[in-house]
Design brief:
40% helix, 270 residues, 8 strands, 11 helices, alpha/beta, Rossmann fold, globular
Amino acid sequence: MSFDAEAVRTFERTGWDRAAATYGGSFAAATRQFVPALLEGLGRGDRVLDVCCGTGVVTAALAEAGGVATGLDFSAGMLAEARAAHPALRFDQGDAEALPYADGSFDAVVSNFGIHHVPYPHKALREAWRVLRPGGRMAFTIWAAPAENVAWNLVFHAVATCGDPTASDAPPPGGGFASAEACVAALDVAGFGEIAAEKLRSVWHHRDGAALLQALGAGTARMAALIGAQDPAKLPAIAAAIDAAAAAYRGPEGLTLPLAAVVARGRRAA
């Protein structure tokens, strides 16, 4: 299947609009754990842009840390949630690949698990470089490879065993990154210097396989499309397969699933 950038945009925007109202009670429990890594080096009064801001969790954290924060997202549904939760903050609708701001408008740009959801992530990084002032900083997070994120692996394996892994109509994704090395290379191509990337680890708690499916189905786009495309009659078997495969991660209160992400940073030359 050839790459269709407009199909990716439509799929992602529709998926995140659908997930907007339920994201805060589902997948946000995983993504918000990595927000502190994006706040490092923030100075009081810094003008900061949060790209792919979603429900505004990072935007609010930036403001609470003393930044003058603006959130941007292409999803009207996500922006409605963000504005309702944080009415004092500014949220704009726009495209990460064509930011609606003048050159040099910000002291810092951040994105929490957003860059890999656009068709051309390299364009988004170059746009971040453009809107930064000389000496401004970029920081973003992406998920590490599925092999390092147990929740993803459990679902993929269970669907392959008990469901239909080809059922989703999601288009092939854009050029996402899944390693520190790939992030470093992308920042370099975009024009950044002082580049660094590191692996971050945490855990995600769930009662059982059914709860994991519910969280991913309610709070994501691409994984939700896979889960939603399964025969409803097979979902109990898929959940049971997750439970069986997750025995090593089960404790008295349920599943404790390892998470792995990469945070990458760069600076526009002064």
